[in-house]
Amino acid sequence: PEKQAEKAVHQKKEQSKTKCRKARRRHINLVAEFNHRQRKNIWLETHIWHAKRFHMVKKWGYCLGNSPTEKSYRACYRAMTKHCLLQDLSYYCCLELKGKENELLKQLARICSIDTGLTFQEACCLSGRFEGSLNLYRADRYPEDMLGPVTFIWKPTDGSENRQLWIWVHPALKQDILRELKAIFQCSEPEEVCIAEAITTSIQEEKQVEVVTNLGNKRKKEDKEGEKAVPVKKIIGDGTRDPFQSYSWIARTTGIAISDRSMEILRYRLIGPLSHSVLTETLKAASVQTV
């Protein structure tokens, strides 16, 4: 009995050593583990915070917070009316357009109408000072075949005829709107796509997983899909896009370029009377040095 008791105590000590907090929270383990768990549903950068306080749901290829686990409705209402409430809208997809302003406006006019309100060439929005919102339709099909609502932001002009436009769409609408944009601008895949980059990152991921597996053998054996399609440092793209698909297209004739910037540009919404105060306290102007 004494030997058995000593053996049991010894086993408990070994188990506690392999499961200590320092080992579990080692950075290399967390990165590989988080990427391993995001192969089907992408996490926002605020996922850990939401997972501790919200009931999570899987929608549109993401894992999103749906409802709070405690009665915080009064606190949220109080924040919206008297303080500041922040929402993470990074699951919205960002489509970036680059090219000559005249060419962009000429083709974009085909998928919207002045009868519905603002258009892409509204003066206040075209200057880059304000964000605009409108409904998109299939090319030359207004008022039929509506694609859905979007918001857009022009990068402020620097005097050049080349402009940059960001269009924010809901993930459920991204594929249809992206397909329509590629059609009206006649964009095809560039010669160098992201497949090579995805392969190199996947190789790094396999090496990373090997290291993690050797450290205590905590990870389960690879399943049928394996670890081959998930980069280590950052998962780029939303849950509807394969990492091996290209994310940039260009028109050879006009030079218009379309890029899928989903999950590369984060988006937060601040609601409440103290929103501007929070931003001014958080964001600090950088000192620009001219040579």
TrEMBL record:
Residues 4-99 form the Pop1 N-terminal domain. This is POP1 protein. It holds the Pfam family POP1_N. It comes from Notiomystis cincta. One of its GO terms (biological process) is tRNA 5'-leader removal. GO terms for cellular component: nucleolar ribonuclease P complex; ribonuclease MRP complex.
